[in-house]
Amino acid sequence: MSLYRSVRAIADSSGDGPIDWQAVAEAAKASTDPGELDLSAAEQAGYAADVRDARERVREVSGRGFDVPDTIEVQNRHHWIDANVATFRRVMKPVEQHGPAVMPGVARTINTGTMSVMLSVLAKNVLGQYDPLLLAEGDEQHALYFVRPNIDRIARELDVSYDRFRRWIAFHEVTHAAEFGAAPWLSEHLESRMEEGIEALASGHLDREAFRELDAAMTAVEGYAELLMDGAFDDEYSDLRRKMEERRQGGDPLSRLVRRLLGLGLKRRQYERGKAFFDAVAAERGIEGASAVWDRPENLPTDDEIDDPATWLRRVEA
Fold first, then answer.
1. How crowded is residue 139: how many other Cβ atoms within 10 Å of its Cβ?
2. What is the pTM of this model?
3. Which strands, in side-by-side order, build the sheet including 71-75?
4. Average pLDDT of span 167-171
């Protein structure tokens, strides 16, 4: 890890666009310890068993057929950065196409530095990731990642069993695979709302409706995953959830500011609102009734319906 190399990569950023993505990757990795990735045969088998068991349990609980992605990787932090530079680049493409005409060199350096810091911070905290490859082109496949150094470190910080914590993360990410598997239209729906919102921002205005629809859809994604976790995970995990929440709320003021800037507080809000919505729906109609959300795009709850599940039930059942 070298902060000097990170700063040099940002200072030397070049190219015609507003972001030098090669420099982003280099700077983010230079400022991030990759972490240990020396897996024993038993640990490799553990990851495979966790994903396999999660798939079977989530299928059983949800009543929906789906497959986990062909690409399942146990990564270090540098691997995760490399995988996600491409995602960030796809998402930022509309903004890059409207790059600043004034002082482009200075803007490129600032943008490159900002992106590298974001990736570095996330790489040190992401535990697992189901990647639906939003805005991807061609025949790329969805992927499932586990960032082993972070899982190991946070399990020790929380004073919980590594094997149990790893299994909990696997189950959570497989619930997301179940959602996208049950709703083949979901990736395209999220992509269209994201593109509309980013295109508007790049053009200098805010498309509030596109972002409201995107937030509502992601709230449904996170809330349904929590509902499935409650039924699928083969162990009590309230202590894990509580300790993770305490960890999120702790830390120094700078860490809390960074989390806020990266939108991690919004993600927590999506968890909470989505879980409350699906808990209420499942109490009335069971998990099968809640799963109707994935039957078609029109069944996604609106932002208002998330806080009023009875309204959603009346509309979907009409």
1. 5
2. 0.85
3. 71-75, 143-147, 128-131
4. 94
CA distance 223 to 218: 8
Q: For the stretch 41-60, what's the b/e string if a residue is b when 16 or more beta carbons lie within 10 angstroms of its beta carbon?
A: eebeebbeebbebbbebbbe
Tokens of 239: 């202590």
CA distance 248 to 289: 32
| Domain extents in the chain | 3-239+248-312
Written as one letter, the residue type at 104 is P
Assign residue 76 a region (left: φ > 0; alpha: ψ between -120 and 50; beta: otherwise).
beta
- The 3-state DSSP class for residue 68 equals coil
Taking the C-alpha atoms of residue 204 and residue 2, their distance in angstroms, rounded to an integer, is 37
Please give the pLDDT value at position 172.
93
Cα–Cα nearest to 153, from 3, 36, 28: 36
CATH architecture of 3-239+248-312: Up-down Bundle (1.20)
